[in-house]
Specification:
Helix content is 25%, strand content 42%. By secondary structure, the protein is of the alpha+beta class. This is DUF3305 domain-containing protein.
Length: 155
């Protein structure tokens, strides 16, 4: 199994709105080699925003998702998708994926998912996996509508 240890950067912005006091968003995904995987630490503490590094995640790649990884890598900006939930007023990442299909399934089920531009290091790693496991679907022959050919086939 292919795994790549990562940490997610979550940002809380304070809003000047009568409907909401703050907004949360996943704004970064960074490699976490050698870091304490279960830690959360504050990176930025400003009056209008805070950022937190949340560790303990790993991108996992699976052969049956190779088509979706290929679609992601062939897009103009490949992304890492972070699924997160608001718990007790704090946004907590739940899952991280590079599969378009998995991200779409999460969004369809009503989950919060943010897409973050994939780093070159992660894109190279995913690309290596795709090169090994992606098999394009065989091309199908397309029959053209030729009204004269149909008339010739009929007795």
């Amino acid at each position: 199994m292919y795994t790549f240890p990562i940490a997610v950067i979550m940002e809380r912005r304070r809003l000047q709105s009568r409907w909401a006091d703050e907004a949360w968003e996943a704004v970064g995904v960074v490699p976490a080699f050698g870091d304490n995987p279960a830690t959360t630490r504050q990176l930025v503490a400003e009056t209008d925003r805070d950022q937190f590094l949340v560790g303990g995640f790993a991108l996992e790649l699976f052969r049956d998702e190779a088509d979706n990884y290929f679609l992601n890598l062939s897009s103009p900006v490949p992304k890492v998708f972070v699924n997160w939930r608001l718990e007790d007023g704090v946004a907590r990442p739940v899952a991280v994926t590079v599969s378009y299909g998995e991200a779409a399934r999460l969004l369809d089920s009503g989950e919060q998912v943010d897409g973050i531009a994939m780093s070159r290091e992660m894109a190279d790693w995913v690309g290596e996996f795709v090169n090994l496991h992606y098999k394009p679907a065989p091309r199908k022959k397309v029959r053209r509508n030729d009204p004269l050919a149909q008339d010739r086939e009929r007795p």
